[in-house]
Amino acid sequence: MRKHLSPGLVLLLLFFVAAAALPFFVDPRGHLLRVAAMALLFAAMAQSWNIVGGLANQVSLGHAAFFGLGAYTSTLLFLRFGISPWIGMFAGAALAAFAAALLSFPTFRLKGHYFALATLAFAEVLRVIANSWASVTGGPVGLSIPFLGTKPELFAFRAVSSYYWIILALLVIVCLAFRLLARGAIGYRLRAVRENENAAEVAGVDTFRVKLTASIISAAFTALCGTVFAQFTFFFDPDSIFALSGISVRMAMIAIVGGLGTLGGPIIGALFLIPLEEVANAYLSSAAAGLSQFVFGAILVAAILIQPRGLMAYWPKSKAGRLARKDAKPVTPATPATEGGR
């Protein structure tokens, strides 16, 4: 029997086509394309977080640690040894994966929120080290990446559109990895762990192993995003790269607002939140200090209260999927569905 694509997946493919066409219709050096590139980058970051936070239901409050490891590793290798970020980004991903394994190994053997607390503490430790070790990391002054012309091997491009293509490609890769994980054997095991970890263990699922795998993959992709962010902005410092609210919480909130554990959720969440924050900063920051963040936070809270399952709850689903869910148990915010948009 011929298998048809679901409406949600068709819309997702159309989105990628539209995103690929965008640079041909806007100024390649303009602000609009920069905002679009940042939205796509945060979508990739949120999708990376979604692997462990959505599929495995293991909340990480310090994913900025892996993000910062990717940024610092690739940048320092480039500045100190002349190693191209195209190579350094994989070194950063490997280091982040190793760090995630070290954090996950003890915490996943315990019940509770130890993983969330461990990642939060790890990000803060790295921030303090980066601020203190000025001879290597630049300290509070941060690191500036020199512009060296239009040499692709140096990851230094003149137009924003060049980075836009890299970011879009990264988002596609992360989404493909998420879909393969979610629809593969490990995805079913992760959903079993998310729904009821004790029942999954009784059924023979190695819960520790699948959670560890999700954590390592998530950290590696987050580190890749960190490298691209560093090269895109040409400057970063410890307080911004390891920031709880600026990085860790933002990527988690994008996934939650869009639809936790879904393929399209982080993309929708990023397209909703990043431009909204940009508009709030542009039009409300001059009116009063902190007003833009207050309005942005209020809208964010309202979005969560109105639709706890995220914006993916409005995503079109196939007829077969609707029929299969008619008699299904309602999904709570703590155990969101994973089939929407896939």
TrEMBL record:
<keyword id="KW-1133">Transmembrane helix</keyword>
<feature type="transmembrane region" description="Helical">
    <location>
        <begin position="162"/>
        <end position="182"/>
    </location>
</feature>
<protein>
    <submittedName>
        <fullName>Amino acid ABC transporter permease</fullName>
    </submittedName>
</protein>
<feature type="transmembrane region" description="Helical">
    <location>
        <begin position="282"/>
        <end position="306"/>
    </location>
</feature>
<dbReference type="GO" id="GO:0015658">
    <property type="term" value="F:branched-chain amino acid transmembrane transporter activity"/>
</dbReference>
<feature type="transmembrane region" description="Helical">
    <location>
        <begin position="89"/>
        <end position="108"/>
    </location>
</feature>
<keyword id="KW-0812">Transmembrane</keyword>
<feature type="transmembrane region" description="Helical">
    <location>
        <begin position="252"/>
        <end position="276"/>
    </location>
</feature>
<dbReference type="InterPro" id="IPR001851">
    <property type="entry name" value="ABC_transp_permease"/>
</dbReference>
<keyword id="KW-1003">Cell membrane</keyword>
<keyword id="KW-0472">Membrane</keyword>
<feature type="transmembrane region" description="Helical">
    <location>
        <begin position="64"/>
        <end position="83"/>
    </location>
</feature>
<dbReference type="GO" id="GO:0005886">
    <property type="term" value="C:plasma membrane"/>
</dbReference>
<dbReference type="InterPro" id="IPR043428">
    <property type="entry name" value="LivM-like"/>
</dbReference>
<feature type="transmembrane region" description="Helical">
    <location>
        <begin position="31"/>
        <end position="52"/>
    </location>
</feature>
<dbReference type="Pfam" id="PF02653">
    <property type="entry name" value="BPD_transp_2"/>
</dbReference>
